[in-house]
Amino acid sequence: MANESIDPDVLKMFSFGVFSKLEGAVTSGMIHLGDRLGLYESMATRPDGVTSDSLAGHLGLHERWVREWLHNQVAARIVSCHDLSAVDPVFYLTPEAVCVLATPDHPAYGMGMFHRLPQTMAALNYMPESFRTGLGHDYDSHGPEGAVGIEKSFEPWNQNFLIPYVVPALSGVQEKLEAGARVADIGCGAGGLSLLLGRTFPHSQFVGYDISVHALERANERLKHDDLSNVRFVDPREEAITSGEKFDLICTFDCIHDMTHPTEMMRTIRQSLKDDGTWLLVDIKAHDSLELNVTKNPMASLLYGVSVLSCMSSAMSSPDGEGLGTLGLSSSKAQRMARDAGFTSFEKLPIEHSVNAFYEVRP
Prior knowledge:
Layout: H1 8-36, H2 39-44, H3 52-59, H4 63-75, E1 80-81, E2 91-92, H5 95-102, H6 112-115, H7 117-122, H8 127-133, H9 143-169, H10 173-179, E3 182-186, H11 192-200, E4 205-209, H12 213-226, E5 231-234, E6 247-253, H13 262-272, E7 273-284, H14 290-296, H15 300-315, H16 331-340, E8 345-348, E9 356-362
Parallel strand pairs: 3-4, 3-6, 4-5, 6-7
Antiparallel strand pairs: 1-2, 7-9, 8-9
Helix pairs in contact: 3-4, 9-11
Pfam families: Methyltransf_31, WHD_Rv2258c
Domain Methyltransferase: 178-299
InterPro entries: Methyltranfer_dom, SAM-binding_MTase, SAM-dependent_MTases_sf, WHD_Rv2258c
């Protein structure tokens, strides 16, 4: 391309846009450090603010490193400052920042993806080979911290809203759970959903299924701590989902799009569900086309990138993987696949969530 055809102002803005993405990536690393080192948690306990020296001293860290970290956070408008021109500035977190950065039980808590950021980004080391061969990597490739990151990403919302809002929205399900039902949590991860339901509905029996060794280890650790006799966790390759009595309720939270064989799994769910049972399908909000995803979802670029590094990689981790990916299960596609699997009723529930859509699916 001839130089005279390049608009210098357009070039400047394009370059700025590209490097703004790099800024986001580097600042994400700083957020990971803030979470890992307890910097946000410490700041949250002192609403009047901290200096770099007092924050470092409180955590036993080196002041110069803490100061540079704080400068990044202020520049990124994550941490606030009373007076940037002060010789020894005072930094603080707004109440909203405390919710997102330092309150694990708040539904807006957002540290899950940042917790597993090193493991997610480490996938870049083996992505070139995946692009050549087509073969991805399952979630255990992210190690134990990957499982903890998923737990921290989704459980805050579930712990706050599942029992008071989601369960009552399912026709007749709460009554069954209170009386005594058999429930499967497929793709249970670290087990938070099963444990919450098990504590809330002691007359029901819950089985969590997952193929991640790290997730099952974490789930069983938490089960031992909670000491629940009505919850257990198993690998479906060792105990098939279809092997026992059929279920009154089957839950799949944010996992169908990650599976290598989602079509087969939907058939398994139908086969394992009682004729009057319910499948609670929860998955990422998605549209039917690239155009709709890009124009209607401001986080589309993030979600497509996470798909390459994590979700689609998992969905392509066997040679015949279907490869749905993060934005691969739109409402219409999910409904079509469910009907092909033998379900006749598919209803979107009126549940508000920033990322997920909730469906009640029945035979």
